[in-house]
Every structure is written in structure tokens, then in C-alpha cells.
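Issue 218. Parser rejects a valid record. Input:
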Amino acid sequence: MVLFLRLPDEVRSLPPPPLLNHGSIWGGLMGWIASLGDNALNRRPVLGCGVHRQLLWASVGFYLGHYLVRRASYTYANRDREMFEYIKHHPEDFKEAGTLCQVALCKVTSIGRFTHMYLVEHS
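Output the parser choked on:
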């Protein structure tokens, strides 16, 4: 496993994620809860003591959450680019499919307001 802490320069070509996203909010919340847990384990008043530490760990968690969302966005974009490049170079493996019924090999019959689908036997 290779751990890259620095995002590649290709990330700059991607649209930036919003500042308030699920990762940054979750990370900030987890950082704040971690500082509250630290206060509780050290037998200090949970909410009243170390407000500066609570803000510090909440902001660290917020930044880490935002970073992880950017990293995931880059990873998914890279995977999609490779997948579409493979599809473009191997079109014989990805033939155009017809309708859903042609894909599922079924026969559709309508009787009144009810529609029934029957599977067609392979010949």
C-alpha cells in the first residue's frame, strides 16, 4: 500500500468539492467529539474545559474530511477515465443493448391494464 499525502497536480483540473460537504462536516464533528472524549478521559469538565483544544481538533477533522473527499473525487475520476478509455479501445466487448426486454430475453404481453413479462427460452 502506497500512502500519498500530497494530491497530484491533476486534481487541479477537477472541479473543487463544496467546502461544506459530508466529509468535512463529519470530520469536524469527529474531531470535536475526540476532544470531548479527551476531556472526559482526563477527568476535566467535558464541555467547559479546553475550548481552544475543541476548536483545534474540530478544525483538524474538518480539514481532513475535506481532504479525503478531494482524494476520493480524484480516485473516482481517475478510475472513470481509465474505464472509458478501455471501453473506447475495446468496443467489441461493449455492444449496444436494445430495450430492457431484449436484454432480459423476455416477451411482454398486455391484457387489459395488466402487463405480464414471460421469459423466452434460449434456442
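Fixed in the parser; the record now loads. The beta strands are 106-111, 114-119.
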